[in-house]
Amino acid sequence: MKQNRWKRGILIGAAVGALSSLFHRETREGAIAFGRDVMDQFKNYREDPSKAFEDLRTTVEGIEYYADSIIKQLDDADQMLEKRPKQN
Predict the structure, then answer these.
(1) Phi/psi at 87 (nearest 5 deg)?
(2) Half-sphere exposure of residue 25: CA atoms within 13 angstroms, side-chain side
(3) Against a cut of 0.70, is the pTM above it?
(4) CA gap 22, 84 in Å, rounded
(5) Is the pLDDT of residue 2 over 80?
(6) pLDDT in tens, 46-82
(7) Which of 25, 29, 52, 53 suits a disulfide with 45, CB 3.0-4.6 Å?
(8) Region of 61 on the Ramachandran plot (φ > 0 left; ψ -120 to 50 alpha; else beta)
(9) How far apart are CA 84 and CA 18, in angstroms?
(10) Does residue 18 contact residue 24 with C-beta atoms inside 8 Å?
């Protein structure tokens, strides 16, 4: 039961926060513009489903590239730490 209260509290808090942020005009207009962009994208994907797969593939490739870059940087940092002289 307590877990349900916690989840309900989180959802209520998020809803109240989202609604209260919409009192700010620029935020409200931005949310409306974002919603329109998302709906336009859905319409485009519905008309050309292969575009959705192409965009997904491009996104995944970008994520893989950045993940590989981060892993390389972490490996380089680890090697630098291993070469550093030990302090007493």
Answers:
(1) -105, 145
(2) 0
(3) no
(4) 52
(5) no
(6) 999 999 999 999 999 999 999 999 999 999 998 988 8
(7) 52
(8) alpha
(9) 49
(10) no
